[in-house]
Amino acid sequence: MEEEFEDEAWNNSAGRGNAPEEEVENHEEPSENPKAVVSDCLQLFSSVDYIMEPGIFVQLKRYFQAGGTPEQVINTLSANYTAVAQTANLLAEWLIMAGVRVTDVQAMVENHLKDMILKTFDPKKADKIFTEEGETPGWLTEMIEHHTWRSLIYRLAEEYPECLMLNFTIKLISDAGFQSEITSISTAAQQIEVFSRVLKTAIANNHNVTPITMALNGSSRHPQACEALTSMLSRNTLNPADITVLYRNYTSPEPPPIDLIRNPQFLELLVDSLFKVGVKINQEHKSKYIYLLGYAASE
Questions:
Q1: In Å, what is the CA distance from 155 to each residue of 66, 102, 176, 234, 248?
Q2: What is the pLDDT of residues 161-172, one digit of tens each?
Q3: How far apart are the C-alpha atoms of 18 and 22, rounded to whole Å?
Q4: What is the reported pLDDT for 189?
Q5: Region Disordered: which residues (predicted)?
Q6: DSSP state letter for 190
Q7: N or C: which end of the chain has fewer CB within 10 A?
């Protein structure tokens, strides 16, 4: 089991000293100097709690392949092991034993971690680790399953919009079905696939998209016609007052663009009002309905 885990780590993990993929594939490249490899690995092993790093198995394999001795690596890792993570877990257990609720302890730990990440996050290092990984890291997939860490990603994405790792993570969050949470994230609008999902979700949740439609078709240059049409589309029903406003605008010497009343929803309402059985229409205004429908259908 341990051997399988080490093989998986060798294949999937990106150690800090891991050779580039091109060098692995191209066997004609000169091999690394064994002494330099051992020295480099020992320098990494001298880091605080390096035994807890994801790339530990990669570096151990490099170290032993270069002729490193087990005694030296054991002593180096042991001497620099301070058990920061384990101490934090122990303190959390003590708090629970002292009567603090588990949820409160969990919130304390998570909030502290979030604050530390927000203070120390380096987008360049994040991109480097992400590109060296070669594939979606397993820890990242696990993170986005929890709302606490998704909210952290959202804050970081707003602060570092150019970070490739964060932008990719936003897409992963959307792929996982949480697009309803990223409607206000500006970086989400920069990815057409993510933006499309967010827009589709908003429409499916019956959000009123009429103002967006009006803004895109340039109707703001004709405020009276825009206001009348928006009012009817928002309520999905026609009324004589707004129809009269549109009629007055489209019979003026300088009418609004014809595309404004070629809105499919508006045309459907007009057709139903004029031709659907059982629908009653004010005869005094019927000619205005007919005029607007004819105007919209003309070339």
A1: 43, 26, 18, 33, 49
A2: 888 889 888 888
A3: 11
A4: 67
A5: 1-35
A6: G
A7: C
pLDDT of residue 43: 93
DSSP string for 200-225: HHHHHTT---HHHHHHHTTGGGSHHH
Cα separation of 224 and 212, whole Å? 17
State pLDDT tens for residues 200-249.
Answer: 776 676 656 666 666 666 666 778 888 888 888 888 889 999 999 999 99
Query: Any idea where the domains of the chain sit in the sequence?
Result: 2-79, 85-204, 210-297
Contacts of 89 (CB under 8 A, 6+ apart): none
Going by C-alpha positions, the residue among 77, 67, 76 that lies closest to residue 35 is 67
Q: Indicate the DSSP class of residue 47.
A: S
**Which pair of tokens denotes residue 18?**
């891991």
Residues 6+ apart with CB under 8 A from 73: 41, 42, 45, 60, 63
What DSSP letter does each residue of 118-129 carry, written as one string? HHH--HHHHHHH
Q: Can you list the residues of the chain whose pLDDT is less than 50?
A: 1-30
Sequence-separated (6 or more) residues with CB below 8 Å from residue 12? 135, 138
Instruction: Give me the amino acid identity at 272.
Output: D
